[in-house]
Write a structure and sequence with these properties.
By secondary structure, the chain is mainly α. The chain has one domain. Helix content is 68%, strand content 4%. The protein has 15 helices and three strands. A three-stranded antiparallel beta sheet has the order 1-2-3, with helices on one face. Helix 5 packs parallel to helix 7, helix 6 packs parallel to helix 8 and helix 14 runs antiparallel to helix 15. It is globular. 41% of the residues are buried.
Length: 370
């Protein structure tokens, strides 16, 4: 069923959520413009590309919004299967850059299927738990299928290699499981298995991934090598002070001491120019977005809507937490972008699609007919 356009859609449309998202996107475009300002680049400016991705994302958001989320749920496994097929295609024929094979190339346009999987795994898990409701907490045996839903894309993404996205998939899964409820014995067993498997998993990491984790503990041991990113990030953030150096006036940014300043370390650019005060405002916008998402989840009219909304909100929450913790030096650098701010077409389009789905659940609280 497609959502019929009527007055109730406009009256009950979640304009607050849309305003928050567009506000953060606007800040992101300004930030990307500043990060690339001093470059005498002949290539197409990244901030203009980001605007184009936002426009495409808004179109996808509108499409997702007008399709009843229960209809999307009915084809959840097909969508999930399609996303797995894209990951397999990437493994066989994907575009490789900097040692990672993560993208599908369409001429000059690159799409990263692992970003799409973040959303499809949420919808697939929501469909499964909606079909297999339980009044009692779930046991490990009952979680076999959800674990399988996680395991396949997790392995495919890890082999690209993309440790950051693989960890996000694991964290999203864990968040949904804890939210839906897990038997305490099963929980303890799962924790023990994870702790035991960590030393084993260490040996499967690439050398640069090991270096990132070790650098997190003592970045000053290699200030010009593996510790360079974290050290320059903390210098940029610290130099911003309370009110910042001003738009286009960040020395670390404009002199290009700060690596990956339009993607992973975009918050460092913002904090240098706008200081603690600006960073606090940005954080409050993210907190408001997360709280609003949780409100939608808790007021949804069915379990399916609750789980979809919670999963999307958890995705935003963890990516914000990990990215900002990463650039502050309190978490390892694992290559997770800051939602709506970091440059990246695939991530932006998928995030805006997620917001469309969140608005879909929100508006159905008022127009869903039983």
């Amino acid at each position: 069923m497609i959502l019929r356009f009527d007055r109730r859609i406009l009256v009950n449309f979640d304009w607050t959520l849309l305003a928050i998202v567009l506000g953060i996107c606007f800040i992101g475009v300004l930030n990307i413009f500043s990060a690339g300002y001093s470059l005498s680049e002949k290539q197409y400016p990244l901030y203009l590309k980001q605007i184009q991705w936002i426009a495409l994302g808004l179109l996808c958001m509108l499409i997702v919004f007008f399709i009843d989320y229960r209809v999307i749920s009915r084809i959840a496994y097909l969508i999930y299967g399609f996303s797995l097929a894209l990951l397999v295609f990437v493994a066989l024929y994907g575009y490789t850059s900097n040692g990672s094979q993560r993208w599908i190339s369409f001429g000059s346009v690159f799409f990263q299927p692992s970003e799409f999987v973040k959303l499809t795994i949420i919808v697939a898990l929501a469909r499964y738990f909606d079909d297999h409701k339980s009044l009692e907490p779930y046991t490990l045996k009952e979680l076999f299928v959800p674990l399988l839903i996680l395991f396949v894309p997790f392995i495919l993404v890890l082999k690209q290699p993309d440790l950051g996205t693989a960890l996000i998939l694991l964290i999203i899964f864990s968040s949904i499981i804890l939210f839906i409820g897990i038997n305490w014995r099963s929980f303890l067993i799962a924790v023990v298995v994870v702790l035991i498997s960590m030393p084993v998993g260490w040996h499967f990491l690439k050398d640069y991934q090991k270096d990132r984790l070790l650098t997190f503990l003592s970045p000053e041991n290699d200030p010009l090598g593996t510790g360079y990113h974290i050290i320059q990030s903390m210098i940029a953030i610290g130099s911003g002070g309370f009110l910042g150096k001003g738009f286009l006036k960040g020395s670390q940014t404009q002199l290009k001491f700060l690596p990956e300043q339009q993607t992973d370390f975009v918050f460092s650019v913002f904090a240098e120019e706008w200081g603690f005060a600006g960073g606090l405002v940005l954080m409050l916008l993210f907190i408001f977005l997360i709280v609003w998402g949780m409100k939608i989840a808790l007021h949804s009219r069915d379990l399916l809507g609750t789980l979809i909304s919670f999963g999307i909100t958890a995705l935003i929450s963890w990516e914000v937490f990990i990215n900002i913790g990463m650039v502050l030096g309190i978490l390892p650098v694992v290559g997770i972008p800051l939602p709506f701010l970091s440059y990246g077409g695939s991530a932006m389009v998928v995030l805006l699609m997620s917001m469309g789905l969140l608005m879909n659940v929100s508006v159905h609280r008022f127009i869903l007919q039983r």
